[in-house]
Amino acid sequence: MPSQSTESVMNRFVEFINTGDEDLAREVISPDAVSHTPSHPEPLRGPDGYLAVRRGGGGQRPAPTAVRLPWNAGSPWSPCPNGRWI
Asked: 3-class DSSP state for residue 34?
């Protein structure tokens, strides 16, 4: 990747997170990157690891519990009004 400002690279990373663009993932995420997520027992590596999390697949999630939570439109766990998380 050519030399870019940290802000520029982070903006591109956020764009990838919001779009899931595979080409962009390969542009901004090093093949050596290691990602640890609660949904996967082993670390994920490189752009493919981030893409697996973005797609929501491949992970072993804990068994669901019998917890009922009220839904609230003003919840801090809701996405932004434009549907983006970041």
From this structure: strand
